[in-house]
Amino acid sequence: MADDTVFFILGGTGDLARKKLLPALARLIEKGKKIKAVYSLARSSREDWEKVACSFSSSAKALCKFMPFDVRSKESYQLLAKELSSLKGKKLIFYLALPPSLFEDAVRNLGIILRNFTNPRSIVIEKPFGYDLTSARKLNSLLKRYFVEEEIFRIDHFLGKDTVQNIFSLRFSNILFEGVWNRNFVDNVQILALEDTGVEGREGYYDSVGAVRDMLQNHLLQILTFTAMEPPCCMEQEAIRDEKVKLLKNLSFVSFVKGQYIGYPVKGSRTETFVLAKAYVDNLRWQDVPFYLMTGKKLARRLTQITVVFRKIPKGFMALLDCMPRQNRVVFQVSPESKIKISIELRPPNWNFMACPIETTIEHSTTQGVDTSPYETLLEDIMEGDQSLFIRDDEVEALWQKVEPLLQDTSPPLPYPQGVELPHFALEFLKNEQREWY
Ligand code: NDP
């Protein structure tokens, strides 16, 4: 790890910085990580930032600074360059926690001033990385004009979550599971991110984006790659990222349905607040196994989970039993609680040959010990220059390419009432597939 890292958070007074980044950096400082300073850059709103900084321990507080800065002003970059002159040899990390409309300005102007410095540097870009394939390509080529790929960290905080990383560990560290993780044993895979909240307060932003761009293109597809990728040849970052890209090349969406909750605050809008999409991965491992990706707002509960549903027991063999055994499942619950559940069928006492579902739960705390926030994990990776959990240029383009058919669909979203477990059309969708939601 480079000695002494300096963080510059552009947009350092915003929601993300105050709620996630600054608290995570404060914890890293308290853990003794070599952070020399954390600069929060923004035009105003210093008061909100001070309230957050004040809550830190004295060691963290001492390293956090505020710097007035306008991404679009030349003078701001001159002042920043002056500050950089006093940081010789330090590793510089520029975190763009900005409205996406400012990413290009920030990349270009930072790139220009950094030409005068030899410090090791990284640039971190939050989602959304582009608005579609064309804009993502444009942002990639702009980044490459000023930075090399090893310096670019495209972040998706879902990959910092312990349960998501545990998909990888469970699969590739246990022959018990890896042996059945394929089309011979798996019937379908369900990846859900359900929310009970709506878009209130962010409708301006959300209405221009929708559920496909906000959740499916990034978080859900990232989870899918971890669930379905081939084992990498080794645990090197490029080997892992190569496998994710390879998988995406074989993925295609075959059908989907979009919805909007009744009472959505933007009148006349066709923006979807719900999407359910079915994908196939056309390779030897997954041919004909459907992957159902579903995300929606204003539903009955908050739940993010991945369920791998195994095939049914043959009917003939079980014909004399009153009820068929349920399908085995491995469930990775990301939220509200972090845990892994395995559903199997076992005989209850005194029942001849009959099987009953039993669920074994592995609590996250048992596997990991201390809970670490995803941002803490990812910020530490950035300091170490480890890009395994970050999205490469070709991957981000492959992700956009795959969702293009969903983005091009202009049909109006189907209405659904607020507070339902699942919209009726989502239930219908799976019923028509002769499957059920778990
Ligand atoms: P906010 O609107 O809360 O914050 C934006 C920040 O940018 C503020 O600090 C604002 O300060 C600053 N800013 C705006 N214009 C300028 C400018 N011209 N020059 C300098 N600073 C400017 O946004 P969020 O924090 O919610 O989101 C930031 C990014 O992170 C977005 O890309 C978002 O998609 C992404 N993201 C956010 C998540 C979250 O939990 N909030 C989760 C995942 C991703 P000021 O106006 O004072 O200059």
TrEMBL record:
Organism: Thermocrinis albus (strain DSM 14484 / JCM 11386 / HI 11/12)
Known function: Catalyzes the oxidation of glucose 6-phosphate to 6-phosphogluconolactone.
Record keywords: Carbohydrate metabolism, Glucose metabolism, NADP, Oxidoreductase
Active-site residues (renumbered): 219
Lineage, opening ranks: Bacteria, Pseudomonadati, Aquificota, Aquificia, Aquificales
Residues reported to bind substrate: 157, 161, 195, 214, 297
Residues noted as binding NADP(+) in the record, renumbered to the chain: 11-18, 43, 70-71, 127
InterPro entries per UniProt: G6P_DH, G6P_DH_C, G6P_DH_NAD-bd, NAD(P)-bd_dom_sf
SUPFAM superfamilies listed in its UniProt record: Glyceraldehyde-3-phosphate dehydrogenase-like, C-terminal domain, NAD(P)-binding Rossmann-fold domains
Chain ranges of the Glucose-6-phosphate dehydrogenase NAD-binding domain: 9-166
Glucose-6-phosphate dehydrogenase C-terminal domain span: 169-437
Pathway assignment: Carbohydrate degradation; pentose phosphate pathway; D-ribulose 5-phosphate from D-glucose 6-phosphate (oxidative stage): step 1/3
Gene3D superfamilies noted in UniProt: Dihydrodipicolinate Reductase, domain 2 (3.30.360.10), NAD(P)-binding Rossmann-like Domain (3.40.50.720)
Name the record gives this protein: Glucose-6-phosphate 1-dehydrogenase
Gene from which the chain derives: zwf
Protein's GO biological process: glucose metabolic process; pentose-phosphate shunt, oxidative branch
Gene Ontology molecular functions: glucose-6-phosphate dehydrogenase activity; NADP binding
Family: Belongs to the glucose-6-phosphate dehydrogenase family.
Cited Pfam families: G6PD_C, G6PD_N
Entry keyword annotation includes NADP: yes
EC number: 1.1.1.49
Top-level class of the enzyme under EC nomenclature: oxidoreductase
Xref: PANTHER family: GLUCOSE-6-PHOSPHATE 1-DEHYDROGENASE (PTHR23429:SF0), GLUCOSE-6-PHOSPHATE 1-DEHYDROGENASE G6PD (PTHR23429)
Reactions accelerated catalytically: D-glucose 6-phosphate + NADP(+) = 6-phospho-D-glucono-1,5-lactone + NADPH + H(+)
